[in-house]
Structure to design on (732 residues):
C-alpha cells in the first residue's frame, strides 16, 4: 500500500541523512522525499511517499519518531488529504509540434514558462496521476528533459501538523 | 569563567560526575588531553586500542548505573571505536563517546586523519553531534548525557574539531535539557496496565519472559516481586540474566537458541505471555511464523514503541519505564483480591515440571578431559555465585550463560545483540574499575581473547586483578559446531593453529599464567586464582575439542524443534 508520511524535523545539518539512512538501513522503500524549511525556519517539513504492508508502515512511523531530531510524524494518507507535485518538462517545439504542445499545456492547465525558437519549458502542478497522464499524452520523442519535485502533502480541514 | 573548549569538555565531565574516561590520545584531541592533565577529578584509563576504550566504558556502564565515557582521536581513532559503539548500541548501553575531529577549516579537505565520524557512526548511535562552535560544547555534552541515559538508553557521540577545543568562551553548565523533539514516555498507560493485569489473572498457562531492559531500567526488584506475587514461571534472555534470581524455583532458565527445553516449551505453549524489556529477537523465538502458530495473548512492556509489534504481533502494548509499569502492576494486584486460579496454575506447573524433568542441561563429565560446562560450574562454586562475569562471543559465552547462575542483575556482561568477539577483557576492565572489590571473571576462548589481548598491558598499568578463564579448545568452537552440524563436517578455517602459550604470554605482560589440563586441577586452579586478590591470573583451560553447546534450536527453526543433546543428531 502507498502511504504519504509527513514529518517535522529540526532544521539541522545531517537531519535529512538520518531519515534517508534509516530507510536504506532498514530496507524500506522511498518513492519520493521532499524537504524544505517551514514558516518557522528552525524546522523543516518532509513529505515521504513510501509503500509497504501495514506492519512495515507502523514500523516506519515508529522508527521515524525514534529519531532524536524528529518532532512529529503523521501518516497523512490515513485520512482526507491533498497531494501536489510540480513537474517541469522541456519539450521540442518546432513546426506543427509547437502548436500541439501549446494546446496540450492548455488542456492540462499547465503553463509555458520558457520559450525558445525550438523548445518550451512546461510547468505542471497536480497529483502524481495527473503528471503521469500529461507525460503519456505527449509524444515521448519530443520530451527533452523532465524534472519532478516529488510529492508535497497536507491534511484536509482540521488535520494540522504543527508543534 | 572563560575557558578553552578542551577545558569545557573536562568541566562538563566533572559536572556529570564522571570518574573514569577510557581513551587514547592523538592529534585532534591534544588540547582535551592537556586539559585532562591539569586536573585530577576525572581519571583517564589509557587502553591499547580504541576499540577496547569503548568496550571498557561499555563494561563500566553495564556493571553500574552510570554512563560510560570514551575519548578517541579523529580518523582511525574514531573508526577503531565504531565496533565498540555498535556493540553498545545493539544492547542499549548508555555511553558518551567524545571524538576529536580535524580543524573546522580542514573538514572536507581529505585532511590527515580525517573521516566523517558523524556519518560513519550515524546508524550505530542513539544520536550524534558535530560541534562547530565552542559556545555549543557545554549544551551539547549536557544533551549527550541526557540522551544516553533517558528513554531507551544508547551511545551518543560528540565530535569536536581541534580548533573548537582550542577556542575560548564563557563556561556555564546548563542545569537542564529541554528538547521539543525528544520526550520519552515514562508512565505506562493506566488502562493498558489494567487490561494486562486482568489478562494475567485469567491466564491458564502464563509465562513471563524478560530481557535486558529489566537490567537497564534497574527493575529487577520489581520484577521479582511481581513474579512471586503471581507465582508464574519466568525466563530471562541472555541480556536479561540476573533480572530474576536464577536459583529460584520459578525460574526456568534462559530461552532461545541455546535456552532450556522447559523455557522454550513454556514460551511456546503459554496462553498469556508477559514480555518485559525484551524484543522477541531471532535468537530467542526462532522462526516467528512457527512461534505465531500457537495462539496466545501477548502483553509487551517496553520503553521503545518501535520494539513493540516489530517481529511478533502484540495484544496489549504498554510503553513506559519498566520500573514504573511493574510497580503499577504490583499496586493494582495488591489492591485487587483476585489471584490466579491455583488449580489451573497448578496443572500448568505440573506440565512445566514435566518438561523440566528432561534435565536438558545434563552433560557427560569426564575424568580424563576438561569439560567446559564443568569449568563454569566450578567457577560458580568458587566465587559463591557472586562474581561479575564477562564473556566474549561463541561457545564459551553460551556455557557461561547456561551454567553460571546469576541471582543479581549487572553481574553478567556480554555482547548479546552485535555478538562482538573481543569484548570480554575490556568489559572486565570497566567492571573491575567500577567495582574495585568485586571478583571479576572473564570467560573467554582462545580465539576471542586474541581480539583484544593487548589489553593485558592496560590491566598491568591499572593493576586490575581480573581472572581470565580461557576455555581453550583450539577451535573457533561455535563455527566448528555449525560446520559439524550443518556443513558436512567441513571445518573450513575454524581450527586455530600456532596458538601462543597463554600462560607465558600473561607472564610476559607481568601477570600470572596457569595452564590447566586435567579435570582434577580445575577447582584448585580457580581457588588459587581467586586467592590472589591483587593479581590478574590467566587460566588457560585445555578443554574437550569436540564439545558442543546444547540444547540447540537451529537458525530458522521453531522454538520447540530442539536438539537436546548429541544423541538427538
Amino acid at each position: 500500500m502507498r502511504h504519504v508520511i509527513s514529518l517535522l524535523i529540526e532544521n539541522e545539518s545531517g537531519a535529512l541523512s538520518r531519515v534517508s539512512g534509516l530507510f536504506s538501513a532498514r530496507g524500506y522503500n522511498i518513492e519520493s522525499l521532499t524537504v524544505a524549511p517551514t514558516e518557522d525556519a528552525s524546522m523543516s517539513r518532509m513529505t515521504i511517499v513510501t509503500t509497504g504492508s501495514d506492519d512495515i508502515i507502523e514500523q516506519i512511523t515508529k522508527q521515524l519518531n525514534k529519531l532524536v531530531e524528529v518532532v512529529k510524524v503523521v501518516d497523512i494518507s490515513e485520512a482526507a488529504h491533498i497531494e501536489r507535485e510540480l513537474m517541469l518538462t522541456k519539450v521540442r517545439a518546432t513546426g506543427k509540434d509547437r502548436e500541439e504542445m501549446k494546446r496540450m499545456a492548455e488542456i492540462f492547465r499547465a503553463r509555458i514558462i520558457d520559450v525558445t525558437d525550438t523548445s518550451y519549458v512546461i510547468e505542471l502542478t497536480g497529483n502524481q496521476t495527473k503528471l503521469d497522464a500529461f507525460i503519456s499524452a505527449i509524444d515521448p520523442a519530443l520530451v527533452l528533459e523532465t524534472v519532478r519535485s516529488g510529492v508535497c502533502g497536507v491534511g484536509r480541514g482540521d488535520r494540522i501538523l504543527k508543534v | 569563567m572563560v575557558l578553552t573548549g578542551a577545558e569545557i569538555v573536562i568541566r562538563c565531565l566533572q559536572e556529570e560526575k564522571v570518574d573514569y574516561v577510557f581513551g587514547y590520545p592523538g592529534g585532534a584531541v591534544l588540547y582535551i588531553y592537556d586539559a585532562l592533565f591539569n586536573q585530577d577529578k576525572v581519571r583517564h584509563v589509557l587502553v591499547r586500542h580504541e576499540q577496547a576504550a569503548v568496550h571498557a566504558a561499555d563494561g563500566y556502564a553495564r556493571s553500574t548505573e552510570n554512563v560510560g565515557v570514551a575519548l578517541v582521536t579523529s580518523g582511525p581513532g574514531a573508526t577503531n571505536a565504531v565496533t565498540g559503539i555498535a556493540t553498545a548500541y545493539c544492547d542499549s548501553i548508555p555511553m558518551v563517546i567524545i571524538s576529536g575531529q580535524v580543524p573546522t577549516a580542514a573538514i572536507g579537505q581529505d585532511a590527515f586523519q580525517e573521516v566523517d565520524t558523524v556519518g560513519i557512526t550515524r546508524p550505530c548511535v542513539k544520536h550524534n553531534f558535530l560541534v562547530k562552535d565552542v559556545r555549543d560544547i557545554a549544551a551539547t555534552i549536557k544533551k549527550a548525557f541526557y540522551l544516553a541515559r533517558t528513554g531507551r538508553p544508547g551511545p551518543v557521540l560528540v565530535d569536536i574539531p581541534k580548533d573548537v577545543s582550542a577556542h575560548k568562551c564563557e563556561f556555564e553548565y546548563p542545569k537542564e535539557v529541554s528538547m521539543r523533539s525528544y520526550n520519552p514516555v515514562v508512565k505506562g498507560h493506566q488502562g493498558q496496565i489494567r487490561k494486562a493485569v486482568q489478562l494475567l489473572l485469567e491466564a491458564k498457562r502464563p509465562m513471563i519472559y524478560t530481557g535486558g531492559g529489566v537490567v537497564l531500567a534497574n527493575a529487577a526488584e520489581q520484577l521479582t516481586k511481581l513474579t512471586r506475587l503471581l507465582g508464574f514461571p519466568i525466563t530471562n534472555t541472555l541480556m536479561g540474566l540476573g533480572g530474576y534470581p536464577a536459583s529460584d524455583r520459578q525460574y526456568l532458565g534462559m530461552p532461545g537458541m541455546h535456552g532450556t527445553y522447559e523455557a522454550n516449551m513454556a514460551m511456546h505453549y503459554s496462553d498469556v505471555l508477559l514480555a518485559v524489556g525484551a524484543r522477541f529477537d531471532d535468537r530467542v523465538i526462532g522462526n516467528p511464523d512457527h512461534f505465531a502458530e500457537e495462539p496466545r495473548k501477548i502483553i509487551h512492556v517496553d520503553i521503545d514503541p518501535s520494539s513493540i509489534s516489530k517481529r511478533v504481533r502484540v495484544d496489549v502494548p504498554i510503553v513506559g519505564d519498566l520500573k514504573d509499569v511493574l510497580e503499577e502492576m504490583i499496586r493494582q494486584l495488591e489492591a485487587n483480591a483476585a489471584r490466579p486460579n491455583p488449580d489451573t496454575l497448578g496443572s500448568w506447573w505440573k506440565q512445566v515440571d514435566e518438561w523440566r524433568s528432561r534435565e536438558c542441561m545434563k552433560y557427560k563429565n569426564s575424568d580424563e578431559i576438561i569439560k567446559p560446562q564443568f569449568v563454569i560450574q566450578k567457577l560458580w562454586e568458587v566465587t559463591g555465585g557472586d562474581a561479575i562475569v564477562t564473556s566474549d562471543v561463541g561457545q564459551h559465552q553460551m556455557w557461561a550463560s547456561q551454567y553460571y547462575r546469576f541471582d543479581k542483575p549487572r553481574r553478567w556482561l556480554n555482547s548479546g545483540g552485535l555478538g562482538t568477539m573481543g569484548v570480554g577483557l575490556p568489559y572486565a576492565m570497566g567492571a573491575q574499575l567500577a567495582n574495585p572489590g568485586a571478583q571479576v571473571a572473564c570467560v573467554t576462548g582462545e580465539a576471542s581473547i586474541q581480539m583484544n589481548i593487548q589489553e593485558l598491558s592496560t590491566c598491568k598499568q591499572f593493576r586490575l586483578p581480573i581472572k581470565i578463564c580461557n576455555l581453550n579448545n583450539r577451535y573457533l568452537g561455535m563455527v566448528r559446531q555449525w560446520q559439524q552440524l550443518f556443513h558436512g563436517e567441513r571445518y573450513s578455517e575454524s581450527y586455530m593453529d600456532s596458538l601462543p602459550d597463554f600462560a607465558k604470554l600473561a607472564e610476559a605482560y607481568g601477570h600470572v599464567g596457569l595452564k590447566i589440563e586435567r579435570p582434577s586441577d580445575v577447582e584448585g586452579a580457580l581457588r588459587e586464582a581467586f586467592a590472589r586478590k591483587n593479581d590478574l591470573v590467566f587460566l588457560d583451560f585445555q578443554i574437550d575439542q569436540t564439545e558442543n553447546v546444547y540444547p540447540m534450536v537451529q537458525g530458522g527453526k521453531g522454538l520447540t524443534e530442539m536438539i537436546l543433546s548429541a544423541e538427538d543428531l
Notes: Chain B is about 40% helix and 15% strand. The mean pLDDT of chain B is 97.
